[in-house]
Design brief:
about 75% helix; single chain; mainly alpha
Length: about 130
């Protein structure tokens, strides 16, 4: 597989996940600044999730500048990363449902650990050899 195919695939999936985030936002009860203020917590969790995904996407881009060859490890590591990133809208919805419950915040942990694992694993040097 050529490197640009995997990059293009990832560059398509992450924006889809970002789009799902905004689709999960409910409209304010009143269409005014006051209405937006009433959903400020939902807007904040949306913003945090959106920029978390943007940071991962940016890091993915920089990581793939080092890639020389695409092997099975790279493909499956990338797939695992996308799998966990696809849970970000789910975690955001749980945070929105109950801001005091830590469970929703804990659901952000697997995507971050997966991303870190890929960056730091020996084979995670992504065949940069």
């Amino acid at each position: 597989m050529k490197k640009n195919r995997l990059e293009a695939f990832t560059d398509a999936i992450i924006p889809i996940i970002m789009t799902v985030l905004v689709l999960e936002l409910g409209a304010p009860k009143s269409y005014s600044w006051q209405g937006l203020w009433r959903i400020r917590e939902e807007l904040m969790s949306y913003a945090i999730s959106f920029f978390l995904l943007a940071i991962v996407w940016g890091n993915h881009h920089h990581m793939f500048l080092l890639v020389k060859t695409i092997d099975g490890f790279v493909i499956w590591s990338n797939t695992l990363l996308l799998f966990f990133l696809s849970f970000v809208p789910f975690a955001t919805a749980i945070v929105d449902a109950d801001h005091q419950n830590l469970f929703g915040s804990q659901l952000y942990t697997p995507p971050i650990y997966c991303h870190q694992f890929i960056l730091e694993s020996p084979a995670g040097q992504l065949s940069a050899g």
